[in-house]
């Protein structure tokens, strides 16, 4: 692991994810996150193929940052992507590796216990695509996190970042309902002050030389724990950006 002088990992979040790790794939409360990953896989693959003129997905180097137990990673691998997936949480990477071993039909995935701030030191301009799915709302410094993701991309690479908006409605849904009323997510799992609106995240992404190609709002039905795209970014969203694009 490369040494890094700067870390943006929150110790409280590290412990929270460590505690969730043993039951990651069997926890019914994770259905919401899995449903969002299932929604994103075809969207992400379609955007990658459009941008790289239908190059085979396996020929592109894809980095997933903050892969946790591997919901999105496995979905992408099943769709034919060649993925390196990193997470700072050692316990979750072990769970992701163990789950991958259960299914011999899955293509190889490289899982590494590493933060993005460590990974970017020795992997500058290495990847065609960098993805981060619901990680930004867990990091202390949005700008530095996005910079580290951007550093790992080739000059014409693609970036996908999803996170939770900083609005009254997202607070009601993700903290009041999910944590306090329904108990689907442990208390303290989300920190409203780390949420960021799509326009602010887009602004940071643009400052690293990207053009925003598409931003899609997401909403979740908390009763049946399914996610779908909506025409507002007021709850959560995924940003798709490309460097050197007009
Ligand atoms: C909500 S989970 C992500 C879910 C996952 N992307 C998925 O699609 O299933 C957030 C993850 O981000 C990881 N994380 C937080 N800060 C990180 C950093 N700076 N570098 C790498 N991983 C990080 C946490 O350890 C945690 O596993």
UniProtKB/TrEMBL annotation:
Single Gene Ontology MF annotation: polyprenyldihydroxybenzoate methyltransferase activity
Q: Where is the Methyltransferase type domain?
A: 63-161
Give one Pfam family. Answer: Methyltransf_11
What the entry lists under CDD domains is as follows:
AdoMet_MTases
Q: Which InterPro entries match?
A: Methyltransf_11 (IPR013216), SAM-dependent_MTases_sf (IPR029063), UbiG_MeTrfase (IPR010233)
Residue span of the signal peptide, if any?
none
Any one GO BP annotation for this protein: methylation
GO CC terms for this protein?
mitochondrion
- Would the keyword Transferase turn up in this protein's UniProt record? yes
Keyword annotations for this protein, in alphabetical order, are:
Membrane, Methyltransferase, S-adenosyl-L-methionine, Transferase, Transmembrane, Transmembrane helix, Ubiquinone biosynthesis
Please list every transmembrane segment annotated in the UniProt record, as residue ranges. 168-189
Read off the Gene3D superfamilies from this record: Vaccinia Virus protein VP39
Protein name per the record: Methyltransferase type 11 domain-containing protein
């Amino acid at each position: 692991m490369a040494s890094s002088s700067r870390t943006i990992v929150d110790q409280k979040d590290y412990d929270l994810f460590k505690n969730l790790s043993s039951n990651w794939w069997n926890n019914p409360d994770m259905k919401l996150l899995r449903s969002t990953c299932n929604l994103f896989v075809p969207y992400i693959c379609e955007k990658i193929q459009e941008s790289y003129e239908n190059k085979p997905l396996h020929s592109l180097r894809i980095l997933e940052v903050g892969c946790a137990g591997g919901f999105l990673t496995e979905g992408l691998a099943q769709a034919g992507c060649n993925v390196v997936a990193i997470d700072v949480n050692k316990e979750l990477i072990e769970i992701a590796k163990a789950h991958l071993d259960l299914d011999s039909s899955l293509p190889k995935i490289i899982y590494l216990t590493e933060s993005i701030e460590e990974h970017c030191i020795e992997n500058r301009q290495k990847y065609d695509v960098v993805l981060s799915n619901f990680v930004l709302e867990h990091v202390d410094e949005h700008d530095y996190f996005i910079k580290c993701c951007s550093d790992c991309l080739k000059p014409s690479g693609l970036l996908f970042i999803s996170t939770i908006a900083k609005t009254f409605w997202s607070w009601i849904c993700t903290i009041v309902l999910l944590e306090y009323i329904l108990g689907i997510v442990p208390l303290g799992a989300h920190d409203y002050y780390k949420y960021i609106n799509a326009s602010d995240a887009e602004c940071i992404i643009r400052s690293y030389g990207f053009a925003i190609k598409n931003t899609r709002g997401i909403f979740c039905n908390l009763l049946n724990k399914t996610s779908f795209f909506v025409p507002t970014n007021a709850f959560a969203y995924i940003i798709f950006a490309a460097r050197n694009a007009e």
